[in-house]
Amino acid sequence: MKIKDVSKLTGLPISTLRFYERKNLIPDTFVKRDVNNYRIYSEEVVEFLNDVKALLSVDFSIEELSLLVNQELNLTYDVKKKIVEQKIREIEDIQQRLRKSKKFLHAILEGKANFQTQC
Amino acid sequence: MKIKDVSKLTGLPISTLRFYERKNLIPDTFVKRDVNNYRIYSEEVVEFLNDVKALLSVDFSIEELSLLVNQELNLTYDVKKKIVEQKIREIEDIQQRLRKSKKFLHAILEGKANFQTQC
DNA sequence: ATTTGCTATAAACCTAGGTTTATAGTTCAT
DNA sequence: ATGAACTATAAACCTAGGTTTATAGCAAAT
């Protein structure tokens, strides 16, 4: 597949695909170069990128994710496991803040929030 | 209260307090000017800013929040209500994505995620 | 063979949400 | 009355996560 196909299948702009690659977010196993220097992607890259999209959309930064994915760093499974576990805790933190904020917004709607006296 | 006191009580850096004010995030009712042009804050600003912090930390942007708070715009209660309701829906969206991501991360830990074959 | 479309890179640009710096006026303690 | 601490503004700077632009080399269809 060429870059445009990957773009269509993942919904990620071509510029973003190139940008992610520069950031080491796409392992070499997924993308080779043709004789003309065009990127040639494997079919599996689509599922991979969909996972990446999901993770980026919540709490992972590009840098964190590239840490997990970059094979050259050769992190042990244990180190990666710790990163993932830490991330799960961060997500649970966000979940708690979201629950609070939602309560707060409902309080605003019901005119119960102090905040609302200023709005 | 002067700016440093507010900074201490809210945990927001002085530079951020001034920045938020420039962004119309702090209603005039909370901050006046002394003869020397120093900002003089009311006591209530502390609770207000804590609410602002909570909302910014999840899903509100400064601009959205200033829309709700800016009295000069004179938005009707109905318009503000719709903004808040919309925001609640956005939060629920995020909550769903977080639940999915968490599942995904657990799957990675258990070696069940396809993603993991690349990590 | 030339126009249209796809690909490439490097570098500049953009936005949000701040922070830092430069410069200057005030206040308080000694 | 002088130094330390606090305040002010404007403008420059910073980071993340991209996007846009400029320039140029392939490819496919007419």
From TrEMBL, chains A, B:
Keywords: DNA-binding, Repressor, Transcription, Transcription regulation. The keyword Secreted does not apply. InterPro entries: DNA-bd_dom_put_sf (IPR009061), MerR-type_HTH_dom (IPR000551), MerR_fam (IPR047057). One of its GO terms (molecular function) is DNA binding. Transmembrane segments: none annotated. CDD domains: HTH_MerR-like. The keyword ATP-binding does not apply. Residues 1-71 form the HTH merR-type domain. This is MerR family transcriptional regulator. It comes from Cohnella terricola. The lineage of its organism: Bacteria, Bacillati, Bacillota, Bacilli, Bacillales.
